[in-house]
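$ ./design --mode recover --in tokens.txt
reading tokens...
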């Protein structure tokens, strides 16, 4: 848990604002990883699969918002969390 706080502090810049877009993306990514590992062993858990899709959609909307408002922070978040960036049309 200590590692989680340090990564969150790096993204937000020491600010304790858990409502910031970068913090929300971080916590959603953490939940997505936990749910993905659960679904690997329980492949027929359809309600958890639906929840995973909802979390992925929410994270995608936040990433779109962040890429429009602050491209430097967006690039830092994507690189630090190791997630795939948005596709360019």
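writing sequence...
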């Amino acid at each position: 848990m200590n590692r989680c706080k340090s990564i969150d502090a790096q993204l937000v810049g020491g600010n304790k604002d858990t409502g910031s877009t970068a913090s929300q993306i971080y916590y959603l990514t953490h939940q997505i990883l936990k749910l993905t590992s659960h679904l690997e062993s329980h492949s027929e858990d359809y309600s958890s699969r639906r929840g995973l899709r909802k979390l992925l959609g929410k994270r995608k909307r936040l990433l779109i918002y962040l890429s429009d408002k602050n491209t430097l922070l967006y690039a830092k978040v994507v690189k630090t969390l190791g997630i795939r960036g948005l596709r360019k049309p």
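exit 0
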